[in-house]
Amino acid sequence: MDFRLNVGDWIDSFFTWIEDNLAWLFDALKSLFVMLYDALNWVFATPPAFAVIIVIAVAALFARGWKFAVGVAIGLTFIISVDQWDNAMDTIALVLVAAFLAVLLAIPLGIWAARNTTVSKIVKPVMDFLQTLPAFVYLIPALALFGIGVAPGIIATLIFAMAPGVRLTELGIRGVDSEVVEAGQAFGASPRRILRQIQLPLAMPSIMAGINQIIMLSLSMVVIAGLVGAGGLGGQVAKAISSLDVGLGFEAGLSVVALAIILDRFTGSFGQSMGLFSKLRKRRIDAKSADEQARLDAQEIIDKGVRYPVGMAN
Amino acid sequence: MSENIALRAQGLYKVFGRHADDAVAKLRDGASRDDLGGATAAVIDASFEVKTGEIFVVMGLSGSGKSTLIRMLNGLHPQTAGTVEIGGTSITGVNAAELRDIRRHKVSMVFQHFALLPHRTVIDNVAYGLEIQGIGKDERQARARKITQIVGLAGWEEKFPNQLSGGMQQRVGLARALAADTDVLLMDEAFSALDPLIRREMQDQLLELQSELGKTIVFITHDLNEAMYLGDRIAVMRDGRIVQIGSPEDILTSPANEYVEQFVQDVDRSRVLTADSVMRKPRAAIHEGSGPHAALTVMRDEQLSAAYVIKRDRTLVGWVRDRDVLDLVRAGKKDLTPAIQSDHGAVAADTSLADLFIPSLESALPLAVQDPRGKLVGVIPRVTLLATLGGEPDAAASATPSPDPLPTAMVTKALDASDEGSTTTAKEAR
C-alpha cells in the first residue's frame, strides 16, 4: 500500500509563505541581531587583549573570589597563546546576545506558564519539541530566512537554549511554598504584588539556574552556528573539519572549553553569596541592620521612659 | 440581633472536582460523601456563628475538612455553596478587588508553617499587612515595632526568619496578623508545628493577648487538649461535617455521638473540667448555731466522722470532728464554737481538676467547693475525683467512701447520757 504523508511539502510551503509575506519582519530581526552582536563584539574586541583579561579577572574576583580570578586569567591567556583571541571574542558576543534574547523570552514565558495551567500545557510540548528537534533541522529554514551570517546562528542558538529557562522559571515559581503565597493573598496582596514580592524573590535560585543553563546551551551551539557562517571559534572548528586539521580543531575546541568553564562559574555564582562583592554587600547590610536595631532598641528605652545618664547606658 | 456576631457561616459547601454543583444538590438530598462519583466533598453544610471576642475552635482529624473550612472564611478557597459574613459584610459573591479589601482590613491569618517571607527581616514581616494596606513606611514600622514588643520579640527586629527558632517564627506570624489590626484572626493549626513546651507557652500567650486585645479568633487544631484549653466554644468536624458545637465541657460531658465520645476519651480531663462540674451535694452540713448535741446526732445518722459547719446563708465557717464534738457533749457544753476548726481548705468552683488533687489529699473531709461569695456549693469526695478522671463519674456512686466514724453504740450511749428521754434506736455498728 502506498501511504505517504507529505509533511515535507507542507512545511516547505509554510516557510515559502513566510518568506514571501513576512520578509520585512525577518529583515528587521536580522538587523537587530546584527546590531546587538556588533555592539557587544566591539566592546570585547576593540580594547587590547590584556585589558579585557584584567577586567574579566577583576569581575571574577568580585563574583567568586581570588581562585576563580586566577583561573580566568590562565584560561584567557591560554586562548591568546593559541591565537584564538579574536575568534573567542566573536563567540562570546554571539553567545551573550543569544543568551540575552533567550532570557528575555524565557522568563516572562515561564512566569506566564506558572500562573496559567493552559499556557503551561501548551508551552511544555512546544519546548520539548524545540529541544529535541535536531538543531541542524531548524538551521535550514533559519538560513533560508536570514541568509548566511550571524543572524541564523543567533536564532538557532536562541531557540535551542530557551527551553530550560522557561522550564526552570515555571518550576521555580510553582515550587514556592504555597503557604507563603497564601499568606500574601490572605493579607490582601494583588497577584502582581505577590509575584514581585514573594514568588520571584523565592524562585530566584531556580531562575538563576535556568539562566546558567541557557548560557551553557548557547555555548554548545557555537560550533553549529559556525557552520552557517557565524564565525568565531565555531567557524574555526568548521574549517578544521573541512580540512581535517586536527591541531586547529583542538586549539579552537579547548578555547571553547575555557570559555565554557568561565561562563558557567560566572553564572553559577549569581544569587549565591560568594566572592568579594557579596562579602562587601553582607558587611554593608550587617552594618545597616545593626544601626537599625540600635535605633529600635534606643526607641524602646525612650518609650519605657527609662533614661540613663550618658555613658552609663549599657 | 447581629450586634455581637463577628463572623457567620451559613450552609457552606466545598466540593472539589467536576460537577461540584450537582454534588452539592445530591448532598443536600442526603447523599453520603462516598456517593458523589468523581467529586470530593471537603466541607458539607457548615453553619456557625462566632461571637465578637470569642475563641472559636474548629477541631478534627486530618482530612476532616477543617483547613478547607478556614480558607473559605477569607476566600482563599471560594465556596461551592453557602455564605460567609464578616462583621456583617458578605465575603461570598464579591469581586476580587473587594475581597482583597476585606482581607486587608477585616480578617488576617496565621499559618501552620509560619509562612514568613524569608528574604525580609522580622520587622518587615510584621509590617507586611500594613504595607499592603498602603500605610507609609515610618508609621508601619512604628506600629510593627509595638506589636513585635507585645509578642516578646523586642531586640530581634532586624533578624531574618531563618535566624529564629520555630516558636519565635510563629510569634512573628502572630505579630504580622495582629499588626494588620483586623477584628477577626484565623489561625490554621498555628501551634501544631511547635514542640510541646513552646506550644503551651504560645497558647498561654494567645489567651493573654486575647484578653488584652479582644480579637475574635477562629482557631483550627487537631489536638483536642489544645481545643479544650483555648476554646470558648468548639466545633468538632468529621468527614467534612460539623458534628457538634459546644463549650469544652459540653463536648466532654455530653458528646453528641459515638465519634465525639471516642475522641474525647483521650483528653486530659483534669485540665478541662472544673470543680463545679464534678462536685456532689454535701451529704450533711451542720449549722453554726446548732449545739453540739444536734451536730453529733446528724453526724451519727449520716455515718460521718467529720462535717462542714455553715452559717444560715450557707457561708462556710469551718469543720468539726466527731471526737471533738463528743467531748463537748460529754462536758455538757451548749456551744459548738470551741470544736470548729477554720482551716476548711475549700476551693473555688472554677478550679480545674488538676489543681484539686493536693487540696483533696490535705483535706480530712471531701473537698469543699465555694462560690465566689464564700458559700458552700458542693463537695468532692476523692473517689469522685478518681472516677471522673477514669471517664465515668457515675462510678463514684457505687464506691462509698469509708472513713471510720465512731462506733455508733458508743455515740448513742453518750447522747443518751446527756439527754435522758431520747428514743433514738442504736444503729448497728459496723
Primary descriptors:
heterodimer, A: 314 residues, mainly alpha, MetI-like fold, 84% helix, flat, B: 430 residues, alpha/beta, Rossmann fold, CBS-domain, 6-stranded mixed sheet, 16 strands, elongated, disordered C terminus
Unreliable stretches of chain A: none
**End-to-end distance of chain A, in Å?**
96 Å
What is the CATH homologous superfamily assignment of the largest domain in chain A? Answer: MetI-like
Outline type of chain B: elongated
Name the quaternary structure. Answer: heterodimer
CA radius of gyration of chain A is 25 Å
**What is the count of helical runs of chain B?**
19
Classify the helix fraction of chain B into a percent range. Answer: 25-40%
Strand neighbour order, sheet with most strands of chain B: 6-7-8-3-9-10
Q: Any idea what the CATH architecture of the largest domain in chain A is?
A: Orthogonal Bundle
Here the CATH topology of the largest domain in chain A equals MetI-like fold
Number of strands of chain B: 16
Task: Walk me through this protein's architecture.
The complex is a heterodimer of chains A (314) and B (430). Chain A is mainly alpha-helical. Chain A folds into two domains: 9-46 and 82-268, MetI-like fold; 273-314, no CATH class. In chain A, 84% of the residues lie in helices and 0% in strands. Chain A contains 14 helices and no strands. Chain A has helices spanning 7-21, 23-45, 49-64, 66-81, 85-115, 117-132, 135-146, 150-174, 178-186, 191-220, 222-227, 232-242, 246-268, 275-304. In chain A, helix 5 (85-115) packs across helix 12. The model of chain A has no long low-confidence stretch (mean pLDDT 86). Chain B has 430 residues and is an alpha/beta fold. Chain B has two domains: 2-106 and 182-267, 3-Layer(aba) Sandwich (Rossmann fold); 276-418, CBS-domain (Roll). Chain B has helices at residues 20-28, 66-72, 96-105, 122-126, 128-132, 137-150, 166-179, 196-213, 224-230, 248-253, 258-264, 269-272, 275-278, 292-301, 322-331, 357-362, 382-389, 395-398, 408-418; strands at residues 5-16, 40-51, 55-59, 81-86, 89-90, 107-110, 184-188, 216-221, 233-238, 241-246, 285-287, 306-310, 316-321, 347-348, 367-370, 376-380. In chain B, the strands form four sheets. Chain B has a six-stranded mixed β-sheet with strand order 6-7-8-3-9-10, with helices on both faces. A four-stranded antiparallel β-sheet of chain B has the order 2-1-4-5, sandwiched between helices. A three-stranded mixed β-sheet of chain B has the order 11-12-13. Chain B is elongated. The A-B interface holds A 177, 179-180, 182-183, 185-190, 193, 197-198, 201-202, 289-290, 292-293, 296-297, 299-300 and B 71, 74, 76, 100-105, 107-109, 111-113, 115-119, 121, 123, 128-129, 132-133, 145, 149, 154-155, 157-158, 176, 180, 186.
